[in-house]
Amino acid sequence: MSNSTQTPVNFFDQVTTLSNCVGNTPLVSLQRLPQLEGVDTQVQVLAKLEGNNPASSVKDRPAFNMIHQAEKRGQIKPGDTLIEATSGNTGIALAMVAAMRGYNMILLMPTNSTQERKDAMAAYGATLIEVDEGIEAARDQALQLQAEGKGIVLNQFANPDNSAAHYETTGPELWRQTAGRITHFISSMGTTGTISGTGKYLKEQNPDIQVIGLQPDDESSIAGIRRWPEEYKPEIYDPTVIDRTMDISQYTAEVYMRKLARTEGILAGVSSGAAAWAAIQVAKEIKDTQPDAVIAFIVCDRGDRYLSTGLFTAE
């Protein structure tokens, strides 16, 4: 017999807001790839699935934080126009947050970005301006629009709220999810917000943690990763927390992107393939000297943003 005095369930207690869905992404252990690559010890290789954020990338974290903190400081208010130069993921994330908070969004991005990225920005209602000359020119043009009074540039490359988002969320999550056992953190470097903020937090917990960054080699162009000219190097870049930088070719990044999909079931982008490659190389290097190492790398986004490129069907 049912208890008639039982308090009824309020289903709306389970409802949240979209902003509360940013972060707290899964950290999963690679099951097959390390062994197939010759890492047959107890070294753990872990992938942090940032594609599980609402707009499907690690950039949801800084996008929300940059807008949220600017609002708290009174620098912007709903109804304003925001401007940003982006290679893709930050633009999509900002377009989502702008729609959520009631801002107009102008995004400038290189013409060669994937169609899926352009379509996602438009779907959120952003105005897209394509720039032929690349991301450096897009950054310059964004600042020019601001000088003309067209809107306010958030400037992910110089905005401390970018790296702070990772210091306050990504770093603590990795520390908690590994029970403080993480020994290596690996991230591809674009704006460098992820590696600078996360690396700073992890180094404060244990200065022996190795923080490793990925950049393209001189001949390669990889979406989301940059080898910046000195005059365009992000102001938020913190070299003091980075122990090692590894160069990677576009070909190798694409190979490991496919390996993630075909051996682990993780459909991710090219920069994530680069980070997976680095994690495997580090695991090979230390498997005999640090058999209990815990290596975590960032899976920046989801691979469905790259399907039109044909990269997943290449060999």
UniProtKB/TrEMBL annotation:
Catalysed reaction equations from the record: O-acetyl-L-serine + hydrogen sulfide = L-cysteine + acetate
- Asked if the Swiss-Prot or TrEMBL record annotates the protein with the keyword Ribonucleoprotein, the reply is no
Using the record, list the residue span of the signal peptide; answer none if the entry has no such feature: none
Q: Which Pfam families match?
A: PALP
UniProt EC number: 2.5.1.47
Residue list for modification N6-(pyridoxal phosphate)lysine: K59
Q: What PROSITE patterns does this protein map onto?
A: CYS_SYNTHASE
Q: In which pathway does it act?
A: Amino-acid biosynthesis; L-cysteine biosynthesis; L-cysteine from L-serine: step 2/2
Q: Write one Gene Ontology MF term.
A: cysteine synthase activity
- Tell me which UniProt keywords the record has, alphabetically: Amino-acid biosynthesis, Cysteine biosynthesis, Pyridoxal phosphate, Transferase
Positions with a binding annotation for pyridoxal 5'-phosphate: N89, G190, T191, T192, G193, T194, S271
Please give the InterPro entries that the UniProt record associates with this protein: Cys_synth (IPR005856), Cys_Synth/Cystath_Beta-Synth (IPR050214), CysM (IPR005858), P-phosphate_BS (IPR001216), TrpB-like_PALP (IPR001926), TrpB-like_PALP_sf (IPR036052)
UniProt key word Transcription: no
Q: What cofactors does the UniProt entry give for this protein?
A: pyridoxal 5'-phosphate
BP term (GO), one: cysteine biosynthetic process from serine
Q: Can you give the residue ranges of the Tryptophan synthase beta chain-like PALP domain? A: 19-301
The record's listing under NCBIfam families reads:
cysKM (TIGR01136), cysM (TIGR01138), PRK11761.1 (NF008735)
Q: Per the similarity annotation, which family is this? A: Belongs to the cysteine synthase/cystathionine beta-synthase family.
- The molecule here is called Cysteine synthase
Q: Where does this protein come from, organism-wise? A: Psychrobacter piechaudii
**What's the name of its gene?**
cysM
